[in-house]
Amino acid sequence: MSRWKRPESVLVVIHTVAGEVLLLRRVRPAGLWQSVTGSLRWDETPAQAAARELGEETGLPADALVDCHLHFRFPIVPPWRERYPPEARTNLEHVFALSLPAPRAPRLNPAEHDAFAWLSRAEAARRVFSWSNRLAILRCVPKSG
């Protein structure tokens, strides 16, 4: 394995059939709300990473995980660039979704997240800090009603 992080990640949008979206509040940087996210390991596929991150961050099973066939590319911000290979300037994000029948409490990893909230699709899209997370919610979560 490499000492560098792979410049590829997953984003998993968890929602109910009624359109409620689960958001997690980050510990670092503090107070930012997001869906499940994480970097791919060098030896795994995006689907494997999505299932792993889902389990690590929420404890939810990945049996109904769906590939949204949505991808975003964005610059790696300078404070985090040292974690990646010197030539890496952008990250490729693969989007997945998990639909649940009803809201349920996740098992949070306290090193990563300190709170969760189930919000309407519109409110979740407003609250997330990342533009790619916002678009993923709007594109992968069906409008309710």
What does this protein structure show overall?
This protein has a single domain (8-140), classed as Alpha-Beta Complex (Nucleoside Triphosphate Pyrophosphohydrolase). Helix content is 23%, strand content 36%. The protein has four helices and seven strands, in the order ββββαβαββαα. It starts with 7 loop residues before the first strand and ends in a 5-residue tail after the last helix. The mean pLDDT is 95.
Summarize this, please?
This protein has helices at 46-58, 78-81, 121-127, 131-140, and strands at residues 8-16, 20-26, 33-34, 36-39, 65-75, 90-100, 113-120. By secondary structure, it is α+β, with helices and mostly antiparallel strands. Strands 1, 2, 3, 4, 5, 6 and 7 form a seven-stranded mixed β-sheet that branches.
CATH topology: Nucleoside Triphosphate Pyrophosphohydrolase
CATH superfamily: Nucleoside Triphosphate Pyrophosphohydrolase
CATH-derived architecture: Alpha-Beta Complex
What percentage of the residues does DSSP assign to strands (E)? 35-45%
Q: Mind describing the biggest β-sheet?
A: 7 strands, mixed
For the secondary structure, the number of strands is 7
What Rg, in angstroms, do the CA atoms define? 15 Å
Q: What is the CATH domain class?
A: Alpha Beta
**Helix count, DSSP H or I runs of 4 or more residues:** 4
Structural class call reads alpha+beta
Arithmetic mean of pLDDT: 95
The dominant shape is globular
Flag low-confidence runs. none
Percent in helix: 10-25%
Helices and strands, in N-to-C order? EEEEHEHEEHH
What is the terminal separation in angstroms? Answer: 48 Å
| Overall number of structural domains | 1
